[in-house]
TrEMBL record:
<keyword id="KW-0819">tRNA processing</keyword>
<dbReference type="GO" id="GO:0005737">
    <property type="term" value="C:cytoplasm"/>
</dbReference>
<dbReference type="Pfam" id="PF01171">
    <property type="entry name" value="ATP_bind_3"/>
</dbReference>
<keyword id="KW-0547">Nucleotide-binding</keyword>
<dbReference type="Pfam" id="PF09179">
    <property type="entry name" value="TilS"/>
</dbReference>
<dbReference type="GO" id="GO:0006400">
    <property type="term" value="P:tRNA modification"/>
</dbReference>
<dbReference type="GO" id="GO:0032267">
    <property type="term" value="F:tRNA(Ile)-lysidine synthase activity"/>
</dbReference>
<feature type="domain" description="tRNA(Ile)-lysidine synthase substrate-binding">
    <location>
        <begin position="243"/>
        <end position="295"/>
    </location>
</feature>
<keyword id="KW-0436">Ligase</keyword>
<dbReference type="GO" id="GO:0005524">
    <property type="term" value="F:ATP binding"/>
</dbReference>
<protein>
    <recommendedName>
        <fullName>tRNA(Ile)-lysidine synthase</fullName>
        <ecNumber>6.3.4.19</ecNumber>
    </recommendedName>
</protein>
<dbReference type="InterPro" id="IPR015262">
    <property type="entry name" value="tRNA_Ile_lys_synt_subst-bd"/>
</dbReference>
<keyword id="KW-0963">Cytoplasm</keyword>
<comment type="similarity">
    <text>Belongs to the tRNA(Ile)-lysidine synthase family.</text>
</comment>
<dbReference type="InterPro" id="IPR011063">
    <property type="entry name" value="TilS/TtcA_N"/>
</dbReference>
<dbReference type="InterPro" id="IPR012795">
    <property type="entry name" value="tRNA_Ile_lys_synt_N"/>
</dbReference>
<dbReference type="InterPro" id="IPR014729">
    <property type="entry name" value="Rossmann-like_a/b/a_fold"/>
</dbReference>
Length: 314
């Protein structure tokens, strides 16, 4: 085990404080926990989210505790119930609740970051989900190496590795892990992609995983440039945007700036239909008494004097 961490790309984190590892007790997160525990002995805490969505959940906790005991790693477990709001899928609700729970646990144990075991196969599945939904560049960028949510940095050091590589490596040292039965439940979009679409793509394009990873990187680079342009425009038109100055921009730059403003200030994403309606209302706003009121996500964008404002639900 002493050389285990040298096999894995963990340079994403300079651990001078505690490191949290999102630990489901499955193969991928087991590989991550073993690597982190070897790299930063005494600094790692495993964070397990008990969703309570299936009968095997208690078994997952038991295996997580057994693995942590063997590695000398502290385990923290939190139980959650992910209720989904109107228009939100159960999968999205569970994901949202999971990240919140992980962040809260990380803050409680004073971890400087949380590492996630998502890998190259997850990246490919995320890309296809975004493609099927007609996503723009942010969606086609798939998953980034790191992001901050709820005041906590989350890192994905294994995006360049396949799940088979992780499973083989864990099995090679005889470490037990759990098989999540939900991973084969084809009611879930991700599982249908894994079972039906990816084998067909592998037959036609054997190197498609690497090709999709390149496409995602290109999309991320292009999105970064659009973000820079949006910041330049927002510096000129204001935060919140001044309507008259916004009207001087071409529609494409208006949309780009507005999406950036909404994401950074309200953490919401407007649909294409909502953005088109908002642009139409902005274009028509030529008199002092003209109103702007358009639903975006769970709130509304409204006119407030010379500016736009986002109003969250009451």
């Amino acid at each position: 085990m002493a050389q285990w961490s040298q096999r894995w790309p963990l340079d994403l984190v300079d651990a001078r404080v505690r490191v949290g590892v999102a630990f489901s007790a499955g193969a991928d997160s087991t590989a991550l926990l073993m690597a982190a525990a070897s790299r930063w002995p005494g600094r790692v805490v495993a964070l397990h989210v008990h969703h309570g969505l299936q009968a095997a959940a208690d078994h997952f906790v038991a295996q997580a505790q057994s693995t942590c005991d063997g590695l000398g790693v502290e385990l923290k477990v939190v139980r959650i119930k992910a209720d989904h709001s109107k228009g939100e899928s159960p999968e999205d609700a569970a994901r949202r609740a999971r990240y919140l729970a992980l962040a809260e646990m990380a803050l409680e144990v004073k971890a400087g970051c949380v590492l996630l075991g998502q890998h190259a196969d997850d990246q490919v599945e995320t890309f296809f989900i975004a493609l099927g939904r007609g996503a723009g560049l942010p969606g086609l960028s798939a998953m980034g190496a790191g992001f901050t949510r709820h005041g906590v940095f989350f890192g994905r050091p294994f995006l360049g590795l396949s799940t088979q590589t992780l499973r083989d490596s864990v099995a090679s040292v005889g470490q037990a892990f759990v098989e999540d039965p939900s991973n084969t439940d084809q009611r879930f979009t991700r599982n249908r992609i894994r079972a039906r679409l990816l084998p067909a793509w592998a037959d036609t394009f054997p190197g498609f995983r690497e090709a999709i990873a390149r496409t995602a990187r290109h999309a991320a680079q292009a999105q970064s440039l659009l973000g820079d342009l949006a910041d330049i425009d927002l510096d000129a038109i204001g935060r919140p945007p001044r309507i008259a100055q916004l009207q001087t921009l071409p529609p494409e730059r208006q949309s780009n700036a507005l999406r950036r403003w909404l994401k950074n200030t309200a953490h919401v994403v407007a649909s294409d239909a909502q953005m088109q309606e908002l642009l139409s209302q902005i274009d028509a706003c030529r008199t002092r008494g003209h109103h702007i009121h358009i639903k975006v996500a769970h709130g509304h964008v409204e006119r407030e004097g010379a500016h736009l404002a986002f109003r969250p639900p009451l």
